[in-house]
Amino acid sequence: MEGLQAVIPAAGIGTRLKPHTHTLPKALLQVAGKPILGYILDEITGLGIRRVVLVTGFFAEKVEQYAERAYPELEFRFVRQTEQLGLGHAVWTALNVSRDLGSLIILGDTIVEADLAGMLENPDNVICVAPTDDPGRFGIVSLEGERIIGMVEKPKDPPSNLAIVGIYLIRDSEKLYQKLGGNIEAGVRTRGEFQLTDALAAMLAEGERFAPWRIANWFDCGKPETLLQTNRALLEARAYDKRELPSHCVIIEPSFLGEGVDVRNSVIGPYASVGDGARINGSIVRDSLIGSGAELVNVQLDRSIVGAGSRLRGGFDRINIGEDTAIDLGGR
Ligand code: UTP
Q1: Residue pLDDT, tens place only, 152-162
Q2: 301: containing domain
Q3: Is the pLDDT of residue 332 over 60?
Q4: ∠ CA 162-168-173 to the nearest 5 degrees?
Q5: N or C, fewer C-beta in 10 Å, the chain?
Q6: Domain presence at residue 60
Q7: Which residues' Cβ are closer than 6 Å to ligand 1?
Q8: Which atom of ligand 1 lies at the shortest distance from residue 193's CA?
């Protein structure tokens, strides 16, 4: 796509996904067998965009190495955001080094199922939106016909239920850079952070045109529950890759098993994603994300996330009871 660069802010701390983000940046957490960033870069590749400005902070080298190794066809410009001062600051940091093209900004923790090619045909700025039940948690837009006439970050009194989902098409990157820079210089923060929404609202107030683009499916990866939910949705959408498995195993679809996974005497799925080289023996694992090289022995897991290389050993209950007894060992 001529005339456009992708900007991916992926420098955030990922507090809500600790302990996983203690050792891995959020963008590299795997869902349904692929890092979140992989889904975003696949989308960008499909759109024909070549230049990608990637803003990194925590574990910057890991993000940069993954991007270069897995997507050699893309032209990366890596930028470090050393202090996490907010999304607006992250985008400013990116535009500070590259702003001669229009920018398609995609947050580093946002996976969508949407017609982004259709969105790029709009000559105006475009903001992707989707209805939400919880408008106080997001940037919210108000519309007049098919034009955005207001934007506000995490409003107490929401003007609509249309949330900004983390994808923005900005035609004039220089203008956004100037607005963000002005806010940073003047110390204009909302909830303690330099917000992208504040700069976009200022552009809107000066007469820039913004159109909404409705997103069919939006997969949030920001917290454990939504990461698991996203894993389920992506597994549903994918054809199951049948492969030879050792005996005494049942794989319940949809599930994903990476390369070299060693499963014995176990029931895997539904909704289990198991990373490369994981070893599972004598276990039941459903609705869970199991990292590469993890080792599970005699465990029953549901709605769980196990980091790469972790080892978990459970056991079986041993009981000796007579007739007409009722015992509930559950609790899940
Ligand atoms: P979030 O608001 O979800 O923040 O950022 P976070 O740090 O990733 O996660 P929590 O809230 O601590 O759990 C949305 C996107 O903006 C990027 C993040 O990397 C994420 O992709 N971001 C946010 C930055 O790049 N820099 C920032 O200063 C803030």
Answers
A1: 988 999 999 99
A2: 241-313
A3: no
A4: 140
A5: C
A6: yes
A7: 9-16, 26, 55, 81, 84-87, 89-90, 107-109, 222
A8: 28
